[in-house]
Amino acid sequence: MSESTMNRTALILGATGAVGKQLLKDVLKNGTYTKVVSVGRRPVELEDNIPKDKLVQKTVDFENLEAHREDFKNVNDVFCCLGTTRADAGSAEKFIKIDQEYVLNSAKLIAEENKAPDAKLSPVHFLYCSSMGPNKNSLFLYPKTKGQTEEALEEAGFEKVSIFNPALLETVEPRTRPRMMESIAVSLFKPINGLLGLGQLISVETVGKAMHRVAKDTSLKPSNINGTKTSTIGSLVSRFSNSDLHSIGEDPK
Questions:
Q1: Is the pLDDT of residue 190 over 60?
Q2: What domains, with CATH codes, occur in the chain?
Q3: For residues 60 and 45, is the Cβ–Cβ distance under 8 A?
């Protein structure tokens, strides 16, 4: 491992979600952070066998982040798993607010609160769970919003930004609000995916582990030679494909 997370603090946004909760559990069980801060609209409920001695839970109002600046200070690695669907949000406007505005407003505040006065960029490593097929020019709401969010994060003011693009997610725990179309898609596609070895279905547990491992080990890079670039402000941006997530996040059999 090329970089230790000892004496470092991790902050997780969206830890009540499917990916975020698995990420939080892996960080608490297998991480070496001194402190793990979970920031969300409500606390995360964890099983008794998950160690919680390093966990600090902060409940915030994303409509008034200015009142919570203290909760975002002194962090090193920020894992962002905030996200929703139009159906869950209730409208396109609410979807954009939760899926994009909450993410970007949080990132802006984190960059501001974790940067030396004379520094150009914040030393924070910002790791964002997006989706497959983001496209800021798409005619469809979901990929367009994800594409715009990714582009904005590249210029948000961090030294390092890692973006993860998982394909169809397979949950390991029931969602707090069931997603019928997701369940149907997984049940129909899973046997085809397995039979043909398509690799287009991925467990949220695998995604969470991959994000954690990328934060811990600086030697882990995207397999695509074009998966790493420098943004216009000098941020090192790495984009991990669904295939990368499988190879990094899956445990040896």
A1: no
A2: 9-168+203-249 (3.40.50.720)
A3: no
Q: What is the pTM of this model?
A: 0.89
- Choose the catalytic residue: 21, 102, 142, 209: 142
Contact 164, 211 (CB under 8 A): yes
- The string over 176-209, giving b where at least 16 C-beta atoms fall within 10 Å of a residue's C-beta and e elsewhere, is eeebeebeeebeebeeebeeeeeebbbbbbbbbb
Token couple for 198: 């398509």
Per the annotation, the verdict on 146 as an active-site residue is yes
Give the pLDDT of residue 38: 97
What distance in Å separates the CA atoms of residue 56 and residue 54, rounded to the nearest whole number? Answer: 7
Contacting residues for 120 by C-beta, under 8 A, at least 6 apart: 233, 234
**Which residues touch 175 (CB under 8 Å, ≥6 apart)?**
18
**Longest Cα–Cα distance in the chain:** 55
Query: In whole angstroms, how far apart are CA 117 and each of 72, 84, 104, 138, 207?
Result: 17, 35, 21, 38, 35
What percentage of residues in the chain have a pLDDT greater than 70?
Answer: 86
| Catalytic residue (one of 21, 25, 146, 160) | 146
Please say if 142 is a catalytic residue: yes
**pLDDT recorded at residue 184:** 53
